[in-house]
Fold this protein.
Amino acid sequence: MAETTATTTEVTVKEKEPLFGKAEKKLLLDPLGDTNPITIQVLGICSALAVTSLVYPSVVMAIAVVFVCGFSSLFTSLVRNKIPKQVRMIVQLVIIATLVTIVELTLKRFNYPIYKQLSVYIGLIITNCIVMGRLEAYAMANRPWRAFVDGLGNGVGYGVILIIVAVIREIFGKGTLFAGSPIQINIIGASNAEVGYLINTAAESGIGSLFAGYTNNNLMVLPAAAMFIIGILIWIQRTYRPTLVDVS
Amino acid sequence: MDSTNSVIRFVVIMTAGVAFALALLSTSWGGQIKANEAIFNKRAILGAVSDYLTEDPKSMADGEIESLFASNVEQIALDMSGAVLTEQDIIDSGYKGGKPENIDLAKEKKKPEDQRIFPLYVFNSEKGKSFILSVRGNGLWDEIWGNIALKEDLTTIVGATFDHKGETPGLGAEIKDNPTFPSRFKGKKIFNDAGVYTSVDVVKIGGTAGNPYAVDGISGATVTADGVSEMLERGIKYYLPYLNKQAAATKNKG
């Protein structure tokens, strides 16, 4: 029965092509798990290590990458038949760089402090392998809508890992969540009291903090911690999906 | 294979289009971006005198920062000899705005020492008057900078703010991220009892209690801490001619 349904849907796809069919769903959801850019393809590690010490900048970074990844795929796919082969990658790079500049200007215009905080990492989206990787692997050979969905999916796949890592690092490294944003909250450790030399920068939030005696783990603030956390995420994911393990 | 001509045509059209679009966006938002940058700096300057304010500048709205700065802060530009500069002098030094707040210490740092100019912000409120000095130096990876507010006696520090370009998060970056670090400067002194310039040193943790010329550093960030010490030592020195003149003037009056 299930098989019959599947065949029927495929036939309909060929006939009418719904705007958001099975293929699109797969493009959007696969990068969250089985083809995740960070844990499976191990791309975009540089920025994943650098910006994930706090959740708020990581969220902004994730949104920026989703935007750049989605729209660069869309635009590349739109002009894919016109791009001369000799300058293919340079054209892709120009498209990415344009979108990144737009993101940078937007942040400067609407949220200057967060722009200062992310500093060079916004500019470095240009060299993020995920973006260009998707253009080469997918957008150059597929129609705009699907390329767009594929770009969004990969951007979200990157962003999800970024935020997971940032949540773990901020809680154990600073004791806070969303520090620097208007909804900053204190999770563990004494708030606003000196603990060793490091203190919790959380403002007096309404939420009482647990384990007031907790001393912030300074390792978590360093990029090396992100490496360990990503390593552990990769381990967990492959334990649950043994098919993902490379046999070589 | 596309012909060379078609490649060139494609590239030229594409770059021209992209350049035009970005230039349009950049110029139409340019004013607002500049304003954001100015407010960001003013917030940092006011942060140094947060003890004299009813509200922490970090949580103030942009408009409040602007109006507070406009009503309570008097800005002066100084040269190396402590002379007060006119608007024309500031423009001649390369700042079109002509206001002391336009002075960019990053640019000044590259000039030969005798040609540098500095902004000085005089903050007035019912709670007190303060002189805010801007300093800039080098941390471990890149530049660091800060604002030091002095009390009316021109000796005691009211508060300080620091910022950096690329110090290590959790270590050197704590000079900005950790509010206890700048607050350790409160009440410290830059002149000893004999009136000799001492600056304030950032030293190894412990042993600074009762010492008004030193503050505790940050474990694991020795180079940044040394950078802060050096920045303060040299940065405040540039203001000394003016501070001495002011001190002498107050003494004569008294």
User: Anything to note?
Assistant: The CA atoms of residues 3 and 9 of chain B lie 10 Å apart. The two ends of chain B are 87 Å apart (CA to CA).
